[in-house]
C-alpha cells in the first residue's frame, strides 16, 4: 500500500467515528449525555461515568420544531430540536445546555418539555473570563456535579476528574499535532476532513478517537511527501458551520477552506486543562479562557483570536457565514468587517441555512468573490 492510500485510510477511520456515532454509542453500556455547545465541560460528564456527545443537528428541521420555538430561530437550533423530538438520540439519558446564546437557552426549555425521557441540564456561561466569572462558573460546575452524582448514584472524585482531564487533553494534543501541519503550510486535510476529524473528537468515544488520531499521525509522519498549501486560503468564521457544499465550492475554485474559527475547528481543541491545578477550578478556567465566540462580551477578544488564526494559517480572505436569524453573530459583523478591512483582508458575507441544499446563488457569490483573488 502506498503512503498516500495509508494516510487516506487513516483519515477515513477517524472520520467514521462521527459517521457511525449513533450505532457506536448505542452499543456502549454507559449513559450518554448530549450537548450543543463546545463550552460544555466534557471532563465532568466523563468523570460521572457518562459519554458526552455533541448534537450536530444533521437533519433538516421539521415544522413541529419550528412551531414549538418559532420559524425565526437559527436552523442549527431547529435541527437539533427536530432530532430530539424525532427520537434520533433516544439512546441518550439527557442533554447539557450551556448558555451560549438566547436561542440555545430557549432550546433547553423546549427540550425539557418536548423530548420525553431526557433530563435537561443547564449551565450559565459568563461572558468574560475574569477571576470572579471563573469562580462563578466553577460554582455552576459544582452544582452540575452534585446533580450528576444524585442521578448516577456515584461520587465524582478528584481521581475520576483527573483521568477525564488527561483523556480530553490527550485528544486536544493529538488534534493540535495534526493541525500543526496545516499551520506550517501542508495541506494534510481538506476543509471537510478537518471538520470531520473535529466532529469525530466530539462523539465522546474518546479512547477510540485517541487511538485512531494517533494512527493518523503515525501515517502522516511516515508519508513520503505531503501536499503543500494552495495559493489562496479562505477562513470561514461566523455561526455553527459544517456545510460541505460551501467547502466544495471554495475548494473547486482552487482556494483552500480553512475551517479554524468555528466550533467544528480550532475553537474546539485549543489549549489544555491544567492537570496540576484543582480540577473543577481548572476546568472552569479552561472553558472561559478559550471562549472566543460571538457570545463573549468584549468583541475585541474574539477579534484578536480571529487575527491570530489569520496569521497562524496564512489566511488571505475571510468568508463570514451566518445562519439566518443568528443575531449573536450578525450584530458583530459590521465591527468585524471594519477590523478585517483595516488589515486589508477581503471579506464575503453570506447568510444561509444549516442544511440548505439549493445553494446555487451562494455558489455564484463565492466564485465571484474568489476568482479575482486567486492568481
Ligand atoms: S448559530 Fe447563532 S443563534 Fe444558532 S446556536 Fe449558534 S450562536 Fe446561537
TrEMBL record:
Swiss-Prot/TrEMBL keywords: Iron, Iron-sulfur, Metal-binding
One Pfam entry name: HGD-D
GO MF, one example: iron-sulfur cluster binding
Transmembrane segments: none
Family: Belongs to the FldB/FldC dehydratase alpha/beta subunit family.
Protein name listed in UniProt: 2-hydroxyglutaryl-CoA dehydratase
Organism lineage string: Bacteria, Pseudomonadati, Pseudomonadota, Alphaproteobacteria, Hyphomicrobiales
Amino acid at each position: 500500500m502506498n503512503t498516500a492510500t495509508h494516510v487516506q485510510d487513516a483519515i477515513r477511520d477517524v472520520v467514521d467515528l462521527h459517521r457511525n456515532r449513533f450505532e457506536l454509542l448505542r452499543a456502549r453500556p454507559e449513559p450518554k449525555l448530549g450537548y450543543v455547545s463546545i463550552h460544555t465541560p466534557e471532563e465532568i460528564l466523563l468523570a460521572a461515568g457518562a459519554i458526552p456527545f455533541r448534537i450536530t443537528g444533521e437533519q433538516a428541521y421539521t415544522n413541529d420544531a419550528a412551531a414549538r420555538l418559532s420559524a425565526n430561530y437559527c436552523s442549527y437550533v431547529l435541527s437539533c430540536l427536530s432530532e430530539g423530538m424525532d427520537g434520533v438520540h433516544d439512546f441518550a439519558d439527557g442533554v447539557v445546555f450551556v448558555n451560549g446564546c438566547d436561542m440555545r437557552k430557549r432550546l433547553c426549555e423546549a427540550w425539557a418539555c418536548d423530548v420525553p425521557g431526557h433530563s435537561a441540564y443547564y449551565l450559565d456561561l459568563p461572558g468574560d473570563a475574569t477571576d470572579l466569572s471563573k469562580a462563578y462558573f466553577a460554582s455552576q460546575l459544582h452544582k452540575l456535579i452534585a446533580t450528576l452524582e444524585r442521578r448516577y448514584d456515584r461520587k465524582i472524585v478528584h481521581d475520576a476528574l483527573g483521568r477525564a482531564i488527561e483523556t480530553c487533553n490527550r485528544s486536544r494534543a493529538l488534534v493540535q499535532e495534526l493541525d500543526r501541519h496545516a499551520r506550517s503550510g501542508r495541506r494534510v486535510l481538506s476543509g471537510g476532513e478537518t471538520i470531520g476529524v473535529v466532529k469525530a473528537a466530539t462523539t465522546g468515544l474518546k479512547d477510540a478517537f485517541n487511538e485512531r488520531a494517533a494512527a493518523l499521525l503515525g501515517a502522516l509522519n511516515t508519508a513520503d511527501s505531503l501536499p503543500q498549501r494552495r495559493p489562496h486560503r479562505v477562513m470561514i468564521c461566523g455561526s455553527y458551520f459544517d456545510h460541505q457544499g460551501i467547502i466544495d465550492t471554495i475548494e473547486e475554485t482552487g482556494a483552500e477552506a480553512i475551517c479554524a474559527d468555528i466550533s467544528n475547528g480550532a475553537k474546539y481543541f485549543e489549549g489544555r486543562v491544567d492537570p496540576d491545578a484543582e480540577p473543577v477550578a481548572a476546568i472552569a478556567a479552561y472553558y472561559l479562557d478559550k471562549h472566543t465566540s460571538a457570545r463573549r462580551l468584549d468583541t475585541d477578544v474574539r477579534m484578536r483570536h480571529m487575527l491570530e488564526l489569520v496569521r497562524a494559517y496564512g489566511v488571505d480572505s475571510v468568508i463570514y457565514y451566518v445562519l439566518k436569524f443568528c443575531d449573536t453573530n450578525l450584530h458583530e459583523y459590521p465591527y468585524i468587517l471594519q477590523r478585517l478591512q483595516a488589515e486589508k483582508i477581503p471579506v464575503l458575507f453570506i447568510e444561509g441555512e444549516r442544511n440548505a441544499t439549493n445553494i446555487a446563488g451562494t455558489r455564484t457569490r463565492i466564485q465571484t468573490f474568489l476568482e479575482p483573488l486567486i492568481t
